[in-house]
């Protein structure tokens, strides 16, 4: 059940909650209590208050227009809290966790990104009224939910060669001034396995939304009130997208539209969508990408309880002397290298582009002329000697175009699949709003 469809009791309760935004002293006097049950967990009034304030700050920072009503912000905050509770419960069921070291390192990165020490970050949070332990819990939960989505959604997404080909074809066919489009989106969702009655109800709701738009109401305002998409509170703004990212059917509709046009409602699966074309712009053309490459081969000796650093270095020094004395590098690599991927190929790594190897390996490799063999050196994988076989300038433009296309398609699929996954979690869970308890 969507929060916006709950009973009149809930609306009276939410109206009371709006006072939290206006009178902080009155908010402090409210007793904490359960406002919703999500699976085996609960949402407390204090959590809802904090989440609503956090959401309000985000909307102000993004200069969202029109600004949602206080009641819409509270509705969205409660929706997000229920979603988070269900995600964490699912992660626990699947055994997905975040160990303390991972959380500590994440907090250290946050501090570094803000040019702060962890102590300074702690003080900054305190000045903003946030308890550091609560902040740490928030980061841990974000890591856990991110791992959940990666495992259950993102890592399962496949992008085919034909999808990449179609993306590039659509992008090439778009006029220069229409290579990117700014879209706004409204979703009228139905649950998995929706009945004909539920589908008909969603269709009628989508038709009502279109009628309001045709009467001149703002797309953003209607989306904030009626859309089931995760970005509804932002007015359904999808931002700028390349024409190639759109499906063939949507790309065709968009190509025939002008700025300001509304498309839909149209059906996808059992749900309904409306789009607004907010504008077009010319995207950057494909720039040639020419990179220096080095053809190299290596021999790796790993260190462990049996093989020390000195022993690995000595073995490689002996192998280097044999190579300099005329022994075949490839033959020695096959019989001595502990890199299973390259040993079978005589240590051959192929043509290596910048950024492919760890920095120390690239540094040592970059010192060598064609035919030279390095002194033994150590990376996190073990000890190496490397021989450079050649240098070249390689045009990677086509590979770069296809890689960018694959990433764009994958990102879009991941976004859509994540929303479907979260809606399914919600549909399958026990969710009960309890406005009058406490």
Describe, in plain words, how this protein is organized in 3D.
With 438 residues, this protein is α+β, with helices and mostly antiparallel strands. The chain is built from 17 helices and 11 strands. It has helices spanning 8-17, 19-22, 24-29, 45-61, 70-93, 100-113, 118-127, 132-152, 161-173, 196-214, 219-226, 248-255, 309-324, 329-336, 340-343, 359-366, 397-428, and strands at 34-38, 41-44, 180-188, 237-242, 262-268, 271-281, 290-301, 348-352, 377-379, 382-395, 431-433. It has a 4-stranded antiparallel β-sheet, with helices on one face. The protein has a 4-stranded antiparallel β-sheet with strand order 8-7-10-9. α5 crosses α8 and α6 (100-113) crosses α8.
Overall form:
globular
Total number of strands: 11
Helicity level = 40-55%
Distance N to C terminus: 22 Å
Strand order of the largest sheet: 4-3-6-5
Mean pLDDT: 90
Return Rg in Å.
28 Å
Indicate the low-confidence ranges by residue numbers.
Answer: 1-16, 19-30
Helical/strand content category: alpha+beta
SSE order in H/E notation? HHHEEHHHHHHEHHEHEEEHHHEHEEHE
Roughly what fraction of the amino acids lie in strands? Answer: 15-25%
Biggest sheet: strands, sense, closure? 4 strands, antiparallel
Please, how many helices?
Answer: 17
């Amino acid at each position: 059940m969507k929060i916006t469809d709950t009973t009149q009791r809930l609306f009276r309760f939410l109206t009371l909650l709006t006072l939290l935004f206006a009178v902080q002293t009155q908010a402090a006097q409210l007793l904490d209590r359960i406002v919703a049950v999500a699976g085996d967990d609960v949402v407390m009034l204090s959590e809802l208050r904090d989440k609503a304030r956090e959401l309000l700050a985000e909307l102000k920072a993004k200069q969202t227009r029109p600004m949602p009503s206080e009641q819409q912000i509270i509705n969205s905050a409660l929706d997000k809290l229920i979603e988070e509770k269900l995600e964490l419960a699912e992660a626990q069921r699947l055994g997905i966790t975040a160990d303390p070291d991972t959380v500590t390192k994440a907090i250290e990165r946050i501090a570094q990104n803000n040019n702060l020490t962890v102590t300074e970050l702690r003080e900054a949070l305190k000045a903003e009224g946030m308890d550091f332990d609560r902040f740490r819990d928030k980061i841990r939960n974000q890591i856990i939910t991110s791992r959940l989505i990666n495992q259950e959604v993102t890592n399962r997404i496949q992008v085919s060669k034909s999808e990449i080909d179609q993306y590039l074809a659509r992008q090439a066919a778009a006029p220069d001034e229409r290579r990117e489009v700014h879209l706004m989106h409204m979703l009228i969702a139905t649950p998995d396995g929706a009945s004909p009655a539920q589908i008909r109800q969603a269709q009628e709701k989508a038709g009502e939304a279109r009628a309001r738009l045709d009467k001149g109401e703002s797309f953003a305002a209607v989306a904030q009130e009626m859309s089931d998409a995760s970005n509804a509170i932002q007015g359904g703004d999808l931002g700028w997208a390349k024409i190639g990212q759109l499906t063939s059917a949507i790309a065709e509709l968009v190509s025939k539209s002008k700025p300001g046009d509304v498309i839909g409602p149209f059906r996808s699966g059992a749900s309904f969508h409306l789009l607004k074309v907010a504008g077009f712009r010319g995207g950057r053309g494909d720039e040639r990408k020419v990179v220096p490459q080095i053809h190299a081969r290596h021999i790796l000796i790993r260190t462990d309880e049996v093989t020390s650093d000195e022993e690995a270095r000595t073995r490689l020094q002996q192998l280097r002397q044999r190579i300099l004395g005329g022994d075949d590098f490839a033959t020695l690599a096959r019989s001595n290298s502990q890199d299973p991927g390259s040993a079978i190929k005589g240590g051959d790594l192929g043509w290596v582009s910048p950024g492919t190897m760890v920095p120390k390996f690239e540094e040592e490799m970059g010192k060598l002329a064609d035919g030279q063999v390095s002194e033994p050196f150590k990376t996190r994988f073990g000890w190496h000697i490397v021989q450079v076989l050649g240098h070249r300038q390689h045009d990677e433009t086509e590979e770069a175009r296809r890689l960018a296309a694959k990433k764009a398609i994958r990102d879009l699929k991941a976004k859509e699949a994540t929303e479907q996954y979260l809606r399914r979690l919600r549909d399958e869970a026990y969710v009960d709003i309890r406005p009058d308890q406490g």
